[in-house]
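User: I'm preparing a small set of examples for a lab meeting where we compare how different chains pack in three dimensions. I only have the primary sequence for this one, and I'd like the structure in token form so I can line it up with the others. Please keep the answer compact; I'll paste it straight into my notes.
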Amino acid sequence: MDQAVMAWREGRAGRIRLNRPKALNALDLPMVTLLREALERFRDDPAVQLVLIDGGARGFCAGGDIRAVREHALAGDTAWVEAFFTAEYGLNRAIAEFPKPFVALVDGVCMGGGIGVSVHGSHRVASEAALFAMPETMIALVPDIGATYLLPRLPGRLGLYLGLTGARLAGADAVHAGLATHFVPGARLADLAAALVADGVAPIAGFAAPLPAFSLAPHRALIDRVFAAPSLAAIIAGLEAEPGDFAANTLLALRAASPLALHWTFALINAGAERSLSECLAAELRLVTRITQLPEFHEGVRAALVDKDRQPRWRPARIEDVDPAVIAALLA
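Assistant: Understood. Below is the structure token output for the 332-residue chain.
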């Protein structure tokens, strides 16, 4: 049972455990394949009434294996890159369309691809240690795995704020924002899993703890006002005009991200509000296969995940200097 994805039947549940702890369960292509196979097996097994996925002791899932994507892209292996994202997005859609309850127990980091294997499910249980984020603009990627469908459907303009800034949400905050459905203390997750195995999804509500206040509540009006602007330039201008630390820190976060990534992310999230999940995944796949060939992506991953110097050299360096024609061509 030492493979990177463990899958077994236990009581009423089809159990799935991500088991690549040294990589914080980052998803590689074999893991995506194993997850899809497990889903299909559990879908067709009449003894399985629900699927229960967790990440073991080292967190839920740090995302896709973006270092591997960069290595294949630098080697010119565009077929592998496309195969990886095609398989990952196919898994996301399979979870969204799964005909039985799909319960994710999120305890620890849940970013990017981790959101893709949890948030599309029917029940997303977050502990106080859960940490949700879509930090793709910081590596010159785009919030994908169907995020361009999910984010514009969060309350107000929270989705665009989260997608552009990569801001992190703790467990209870993720419930307030709509990324998770229940808040359960980490100390009770093992008991909840046992109850799910024995009785199905009915016990979840009884395990849920009262939600503490939403940490972003004092800033919701600002977020909804500023991030409703019709362009990225207008968002920047709006933040510059706002007093206080929150606006200043949000502006710093945007200035640290890839200017190109901010522009294509702004466009794709806004377009996603009018698209189906399948349409969003198709648009993400078209864009990601182009992005991963760009020096901007290679530089972003280098700075964040390879050399880890956190000093990306973006080209262009300023949000205001991005050529709209470049973005339009990438999104065509």
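A couple of notes for your slides: The two ends are 45 Å apart (CA to CA). The first strand starts at residue 5 and ends at 10.

User: Perfect, thanks.
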